Amino acid sequence: MKLHNRKPDIENLYKVLRKEEPARPTLFELFMNLPLYERLAGRKLVKTGDPALENLKLVVEAYTAAGYDYATAHGSDFGFPSNRHQEKSTISLNDGCVITDEASFEAYQWPDPDDWDFSRLERIRPFLPDGM
After folding, report:
1. Is 52 domain-assigned?
2. Would you tell me how many other CB atoms lie within 10 Å of the CB of residue 114?
3. CA geometry: angle at 59 spanning 9 and 80, to 5°?
4. Local confidence pLDDT in tens for the 132 residues of the chain
């Protein structure tokens, strides 16, 4: 589902982040959801081969089809430990909160990014359209 013929231009997002005026309106989402990715990309998620790479390909196709200048990509399983409960229904944004004050901030077991494999980001690079 291609919504328009806009070509990605990451410089638009960089300008927004630098508090400069971009050449055109700049869309931004941290993430969407699988049904929306599939609808925008016009295909289902492929569940063979490298599942993480296939998911990234779908995300790139969806963000491109929707006119974004970038695509969010989770380059590894890197994450922050929490007590969040995964549910399909709506839950409070406060659910699973582990940092509530300065003491819990200091006690938090911060993950070390150097301990994670971010090679997915290099493997997705050939699938990015020019300008993204």
Report:
1. yes
2. 6
3. 105
4. 666 678 999 999 999 999 999 999 999 998 899 999 999 999 999 988 888 889 999 999 999 999 999 999 876 677 777 776 665 566 666 666 788 899 999 999 888 888 888 888 888 899 999 999
Whether the CB-CB separation of 41 and 82 falls below 8 Å is answered with no
From 92, 96, 93, select the one nearest 104 (Cα to Cα). Answer: 96
What is this structure's pTM? 0.75
Assess if residue 110 is contained within a domain.
no
Residue span of the structural domain in which 63 resides: 10-80+116-127
Q: Which of 126, 109, 129 is nearest to 53 (CA)?
A: 126
The verdict on residue 85 lying in a domain is no
Instruction: Please indicate, yes or no, if residue 5 is contained in any of the structural domains.
Output: no
